[in-house]
Design a protein that fits this description.
The chain is an all-alpha fold. The chain has two domains: 111 residues; 159 residues, no CATH class. It has ten helices and no strands. The radius of gyration is 19 Å and the shape is globular. The two termini are 21 Å apart.
């Protein structure tokens, strides 16, 4: 089922790239339409899985990635529709397609574990996934900022300058995405710690939840990095390129935690 959203995302990516290169309004509208169609198809897939297992599909690595991709697409569509700016689609969609390939090519069964039911677990997972989606958006915005900055610094007003938003607009968007992500990450971590303290049973994965688990340890490192970025932007004026680079470093940590650690290293978060 994941192949249908993937096909629509690939078609949307092609349209966004053409729009970015040629700046044709009708191609841009077609790109948005294809992306909306992909999001609707993806929502249907996630909804069917939710009905099947009675909770949001996040208990396997591939299903968590799929849900994350959907949230990233929705976050981007909200940004596009509120700013009327489509240029970021050509940068966001490669990440969307690359990640959606994982559940499409390597689906994993979803577990119906009793310990995963309850509002705290739902808040924990939903908050973290939305935080990661916000951080992905901030990372892409940061990359776009650096591309635009380099053209301006070189006084070469060429390909990117004519197509990308102004630096102050990109910086504001980046800081807003980071703030939203940091709030969601904080809520998700707090809810997770409370849930882990309340959950009952002898499941060895619950017993393995400690700072020694790579998944938890790296998540805390991620929180420290983004906390510093929020503090630096508000207190010592670290905006612009510094914020862009920090966004890239933070999201690299997110991907490390989301992919190799989730698949191979964690003992507690492999539900």
């Amino acid at each position: 089922m994941h192949s249908i959203p993937l096909a629509l995302y690939v078609a949307a990516l092609a349209a966004y790239v053409v729009h970015f290169a040629r700046r044709q309004a009708e191609v841009g509208r077609a790109a948005t339409t294809l992306l909306v169609a992909g999001a609707l198809a993806h929502t249907f897939v996630v909804g069917m899985q939710t009905m099947e297992v009675s909770h949001v599909p996040v208990t396997s690595a591939s299903s968590a990635i799929s849900t994350f991709v959907l949230l990233l697409v929705l976050a981007y569509l909200f940004t596009e529709m509120t700013t009327e700016e489509r240029t970021m689609g050509a940068f966001i969609l490669p990440l969307v397609v690359a990640l959606q390939l994982i559940p499409a090519l390597h689906p994993m069964p979803e577990e119906r574990a009793d310990i995963l039911r309850g509002p705290l677990f739902g808040i924990h997972v939903a908050s973290l996934l939305f935080a990661y989606a916000s951080f992905a958006l901030a990372c892409v915005i940061g990359i776009i900022y650096v591309l635009q900055f380099k053209e301006l610094k070189a006084k070469h007003f060429g390909f990117f300058y004519a197509r990308l938003p102004a630096l102050d607009v990109l910086d504001t968007m980046n800081q807003r995405a980071i703030m939203v992500g940091w709030i969601c990450l904080t809520v998700g971590l707090v809810a997770g710690f409370i849930w882990a303290g309340q959950v009952q049973g002898s499941d060895p994965r619950v017993q393995a939840m400690s700072l020694e688990d790579p998944k938890i340890f790296v998540a805390l490192i991620c929180w420290v990095v983004y906390s510093f970025e929020v503090f630096a932007a508000r207190r010592i004026g670290w905006g612009g390129r510094r914020a862009a680079y920090l966004s890239a470093v933070g999201f690299a940590i997110v991907l490390l935690n989301f992919l190799p650690i989730s698949y191979f290293l964690t003992n507690s978060h492999n539900f």
